[in-house]
Design goal:
Length: 406
């Protein structure tokens, strides 16, 4: 599993590098400032990246489609549209190919497409994550043969700037609750906090084999560490670290919104594992499903866990959703094939992406996904009390639900 993930990451970086061979040395300055949402759209929305590179927002019933980016073919590549935590803004990455080479930028707008803002960046960006205050954005992208991490935000005088803060490979991150620091895991040795002035403070533990750390809303940190000849999943409060799980292999994990439970998957190298949940207070684990699970994510209220589980058959990408309610995991909806973009770019790193976007509706009664069911591909919405999902939009490759009703 580790080798497949590494291969996926190398492939992604190689593709980005190929597109940015003639990229400019650095940003020449941002255009306009991040702005507040002037005219709220009523109700929650879906943010969709389509197969042709266009980006839209749409109501969960498929109505009121609003275009944010029109398709421009091979001249413009768009990546990872994401909502701000307050639901008032969206952001995405653009890579534009022109006669003078390639240029990369981070773009923000209101959900209705107004107040577009462009931040030229040094990296060919493939990952974005808003901070919890919805005032700045961390980004990852190809940079000088490795992965560069930067932050886009307003400077002290109100000027919007995009600044590269660190370089390494691979590079994973999680925002602090107040949005002033990042918990970073870089390569096989670096695990620490990085502030906006590039000051790195090591945690003091040697990192285990995992991807993205988690900085919980109450200030505690969750990560994997190596202690002597074993690996442990720990939760840290200040100088105190508590062991939650001892494991062999690699581990992927996501924290519940209330910080009370951590869902995790241990991969031993023979393939994907199932999902367990550990109670943070008691450090006791229970099995959610033994079925190999590609992606998993807590509902906004932390009551349910969404599981994208594999289905045995000739096609290894065939999946079926399950939802765990704290007691049992129940199959829901038909089998499906996840969209190629979601499967290739998101699933191998879903512990990171789960901190930046959600498939769940704000009230936790439904979830959205991009996939193929039968002969119909696009965006679907599955209500938990419905046998079949509802088709929303043709040609959608990635979807994110607004974090709250705007």
């Amino acid at each position: 599993m580790r080798s497949r993930r590494a291969a996926a990451l190398i492939t992604m970086v190689a593709l980005v590098a190929a597109c940015t061979r003639n990229a400019p040395e650095g940003p020449s300055g941002a255009l306009s400032s991040l702005s507040t949402f002037p005219h709220p759209i009523t109700g929650d929305r879906l943010l969709v990246l389509k197969d042709d590179g266009s980006i839209v927002t749409v109501s969960p019933d498929g109505s009121a489609v609003i275009s944010l980016v029109e398709s421009r073919g091979i001249d413009l590549e768009t990546r990872q549209p994401v909502w701000s935590p307050d639901g008032r803004s969206v952001a995405w990455a653009e890579l534009e190919l022109g006669d003078q080479g390639a240029s990369s930028r981070l773009v923000t707008s209101a959900p209705d497409g107004s107040s577009r803002t462009e931040f030229p960046v040094e990296t060919a960006t493939f990952f974005l994550q808003w901070d919890p205050t919805s005032s700045r954005i961390a980004y990852l992208g190809n940079f000088q043969g490795a992965i560069g991490m930067g932050v886009a935000a307003r400077s002290a005088d109100g000027t919007p700037v995009a600044t590269t803060l660190g370089v390494g490979q691979p590079f994973y991150l999680s925002w602090s609750p107040e949005g002033q620091q990042l918990l970073i895991h870089v390569g096989s040795e670096t695990l620490g906090t990085l502030d906006l002035e590039r000051n790195l403070v090591p945690i003091g533990d040697a990192p285990g084999i995992f991807q993205a750390p988690v900085w919980l809303a109450d200030g505690r940190m969750v990560y994997a560490a190596t202690a002597k000849d074993r690996q442990v999943l720990v939760i840290r409060t200040g100088d105190r670290a508590k062991k939650l799980v001892t494991f062999e292999g690699s581990i992927e994990f996501v924290g519940s919104p209330d910080g009370k439970r951590i869902a995790y998957r241990i991969d031993d190298g023979s393939g994907l594992g199932g999902i367990d949940v550990v109670d943070v207070r008691s450090a006791r684990s229970r099995t959610v499903t033994e079925t190999p699970t590609s992606a998993f994510q807590w509902s906004p209220d932390g009551r349910r866990l969404l599981l994208m589980t594999m289905v045995e058959g000739d096609d290894p990408t065939t999946h079926r959703w399950q939802v765990w309610d704290g007691k049992v995991a129940t199959r829901i909806g038909p089998t499906f094939l996840p969209s190629p973009t979601f499967w290739r770019d998101y699933v191998p790193f879903y512990g990171q992406f789960a901190q930046s976007m959600t498939l769940w509706s704000p009230d936790g009664s439904s979830f959205a996904f991009a996939g193929l069911i039968g002969d119909r591909a696009g965006i679907w919405v599955q209500d938990l009390d419905a046998e079949e999902p509802t088709f929303v939009l043709d040609g959608g490759s990635v979807v994110a639900w607004s974090p709250e009703a705007s």
